[in-house]
Each structure stands twice: as C-alpha cells, then as structure tokens.
Amino acid sequence: MKAPISRNGIPVFTEESFPRPEDKVYIHLSSEYPDFVGVTHSHKYIEIVYILSGSAEHETVNGRVTAQKGDLFIINPDVPHAFYGNKDSRESFCAYDLMFVPDFFDVNLINSGDFSSLGSSFLFYSMFPQEKAAGADLHFSNNSYNDFGELFNKIHLEYNRMEQGYVNIIRAYVIELIVKIFRRMDAKTEAQPIMRKSKIIDDALVYLRENYSMHMSVSDLASHMFLSRDYFSKLFRNTTGMTVTAFLKQLRINESCRLLLETDQSVLEIAQYCGFHDMKHFYTAFRSQTGKTPGEYRKSIKG
After folding, report:
1. SS3 assignment, position 19
2. What ranges do the domains of the chain cover?
3. How far is CA 209 from each of CA 18, 28, 200, rounded to the nearest angstrom?
4. Quick check: 54 and 117 in contact, CB under 8 A?
5. What is the predicted pLDDT for the residue at 266?
6. 223 pLDDT higher than 50
7. Is the domain 192-303 a CATH 1.10.10.60 member?
8. What is the mean pLDDT of residues 32-47?
9. What is the CA radius of gyration of the chain?
10. Domain 5-191 in CATH: superfamily?
11. How far apart are alpha carbons 293 and 284 in whole angstroms?
C-alpha cells in the first residue's frame, strides 16, 4: 500500500493508498506488510479481516479482544485499531485484509462511509438486519475456512492475477461475503436479544460520556455502534427515556455546570470545551436546564 497520511500521529489510510485506487477495492495478506502489524492506524474505507493462522490481540477504543484462527472482524472508517501478533502462538499470525469503499457496489453510496450504509443499497436492502453487534468493530468467532476463508482466497487470487473482468468477479465474491455476514448477524441477534440491546446502550452511554465534547450527530453514534440511525434512535429512547440529542445536551450542560463551579475558565472556553460552538444555543440550553445563565449560575453557586 502507498504511504498513509498522518492525523494526530496516527497513520490514516485512504482509498488513494490502494495500489489501484480506481478499483475501489484492495486485498492483501498481513504477511505481505509486516511493518503494519502492531501499528495503531485508521482508514477511510471499510476493512474486513479474516484470521488465517496464529493469534493476535485486536485493540480498538473498546479495549482488546483476542483474534484467533477463523475469526472475522469488520472495522468501520475512522476507527483507530491495531492487531498485535501473539509471538507465543505455535503458528505465525497471518490474516487476509479486504478493503473497499461502499460505492464499490452501488454508485448511490458514494457519500456513505460505514458498514451499516450498505443496507441502503438495492443489493442488500431486503435482508439488511436492523440490529447488529455493538462496538467499534464487528467480530465473529470460530468460523471454519469454508465459511469465509475460501472467498478471501478467491478474491486475493483475482486481485493479483488481474485477468479480464477481475473487478466484476471480485465484486460478486464480496457481495457473497457480505450476504453471509448478514446471515451471521441475524443469528447473533436472535441468540441474545435482551443482553445485546442492553450492552449496545451501555456502550453508547460510555462513548457519549467520553466524547461529549466532540461534534457528534445521531447518525455518527449509530454508525459507531453498527446500527441503522432509526433503529438506534428508537432503542436509545426506549432504554433511557430520552432521545440521543436530549441526553447529549443534558450531559454537556451538566459538565458545563461542573466546570463553572470547579474552574475559573471563561464561559466561552467552557461552552466550546463541552461541545457548544454556538453561544446563543449554549445560553438557551443552559437556561432551559438550570433556569439561570452561566454567569448567574456560577455567581449563585460560588457566592
């Protein structure tokens, strides 16, 4: 792959990093790029990883999970992550890395970015599951080589041989792969619906509390949790009794109150730190929740 750009010291791979960007798809074996194993990075495309041999630790914002032979991971765009090979394993760590942008399948998805956006395509709409596993990545364990490995091998061969029509053949194989993944997602949904829904919201609340200062839309949060926007909004409201927007606003105002009490930062600095970039909106939201302006609140508490 071509050299990545860097953001905050983390390498970021884009579609232009592909050896043939015009293909909109790329696949390689991790053994072909050993320098990238164990390096935290992110990318602007969807990545699907299938572990061929050995074991590793896969690290994302949600922590580390063990990646073993037969495991499959789906990593969304803009998610920093890394695979750390286990040197104590009897087999060397090796995995297929398949990368593509959503409009590889459907030109209507050209402005889409994450895995859940594929459900909007006419190719998958009828079967796209409404509920998916939570977290920065999807993870399916203990798959046989026949489940996914053969498809990765076929895609890898087609990509390297570059015979006539190879991109169309690869597209057909990747569609088959995604359909099989959707089947797994449905099965996973049916297995533990109540526990899984609770974990989705728990993880979402943790993510909100850790990232409330960032610009964040409901769609951004839903994509991070691998859920459709409508389904996630409904699940969040039914679980917490609040909309995502109302909860995030309350979280930001509560943090603003804390900073007004515990620091000497200006109201402007506090508003921006808490994710408010429109001061009129900040004052309106603050007064709505506390009954006071930020200045009046600080004076009444400290007075």
Report:
1. coil
2. 5-191, 192-303
3. 35, 37, 14
4. no
5. 92
6. yes
7. yes
8. 85
9. 22
10. Regulatory protein AraC (2.60.120.280)
11. 8
